[in-house]
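Re: FE2/S2 (inorganic) cluster structure - here you go.
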Amino acid sequence: MEGRFVLDDRPIPYRAGDTVAVAILRAGEHPAQGGTVCLAGDCGNCVAEVDGVAYVRTCQTPARPGLVVQRHPAVGQPPLRGAGRAGLTNPSPRLRVERADVDVVVIGGGDSGTRAAAEAGAAGRVVELIDAGDGSEAVAIYAGPTVIVRTPQGMRHLTCREVVVAAGAAELQAVCPGNDLKGLMTVRAAIQLHAAGVDLGVAVAIGEPPNEVPCTPLSGRLLRIEGTERVSGVVTRDGEGGDERATPCDTVILGLGYAARDPLARMAADLPVSLVGGAAKAFRLPPAPTAGTICHCSGVTVKDVEDLWERGFRDLELVKRASL
Ligand code: FES
């Protein structure tokens, strides 16, 4: 099926199977302000207002006719929708919260999550499988344990005896000068866009290149991405004392490795929560970045975090909140 949705008051065509982000990228646009694109729900750099709801990850939103997408402003926050408060617009209906009690909540519908759910079910336990691909996203695990799930219809609060996190592994993103430019993406995103017929132009790959996408692998360490708004080239260095090498390109593909998607389990360290599959793996940490954007949707840079550290913020949660 093909159709159109609206982006900032103009029509965007989409093809069967497209997410909103893929259709926008195929049209030569970008759903947000630029930077690393993962198309896997990890980077937050595709968030936009969708049908009146801000901060929706458009790479996780299937395209459908009549959808209205509004990009967030380049500076400041998007308007919040709510009823009756000064400064808020477009009153929305009260949020619907559905509550349920089960034995096991499995987060992630990949191979390991499906297997964990099947094993628990075979043992006679009542299982709830939460998968972002179905539009349900587990956003927190609180005491109980209670799993908080966002759905297209509202929220679900699932109390249970046990939680299994099977959310897989996220691709590492580059934190370096220029990582907020359009045209930077992970290997999985490049494969997805190439398969969807999106023109990537002249593409180079840093780290492990994708076999499925025409690109030139570059050796050496990534120093910075160059360009104005869009990528126009990349600078690398071979070895510590080697010369800098500039390579012109339209797209930089990042094959930098993986990190376990385990933040939900970390949030619930004292609760009966287990990790399986890629979420349970101990991946090697990348070197600490010295410059660049860390959080694209809030524009938080390495310098912002360093300044907070100097001001005495030494707790990760406090640094996160103080930097927004
Ligand atoms: S979260 Fe959507 S592109 Fe990364």
